[in-house]
Amino acid sequence: MISQWQLRAAFAARLSDMYGREVPAYTTLVDVSREVNEDVLRAQGADAERLGSIGRVTAERHGAIRVGTPAELHQVARIFGALGMHPVGFYDLREAAAGAVPVVSTAFRPVDGEELACNPFRVFTSMLTPANPRFFDAGLRSRLENFLAGRELFPPELLALADRAEAERELPDGDAERFLQLAVAAFELSSEPIDKAWYETLERISAVAADIGGVHSTHINHLTPRVLDIDELHRRMTERGIEMIDTIQGPPDWKGPDLLLRQTSFRALAEPRALRTPDGSVTGGALRVRFGEVEARGIAVTREGRALYDHLLTLVDEQVALNPAADRAELARTVWSEHVPGTERDLAAQGLAYFTHQIATDRPRYGSHPPTTVGDLLDQGWIRAEPLVYEDFLPRSAAGIFQSNLSGEGSRDNDRQGAAYDAAWLSGAIDREVLDPFALYEQQQNRSLDKVARELGLSAP
Ligand code: OOG
Ligand code: NI
Question: How many Å lie between the centroid of ligand 1 and the Cα of residue 66?
Answer without folding.
Answer: 9
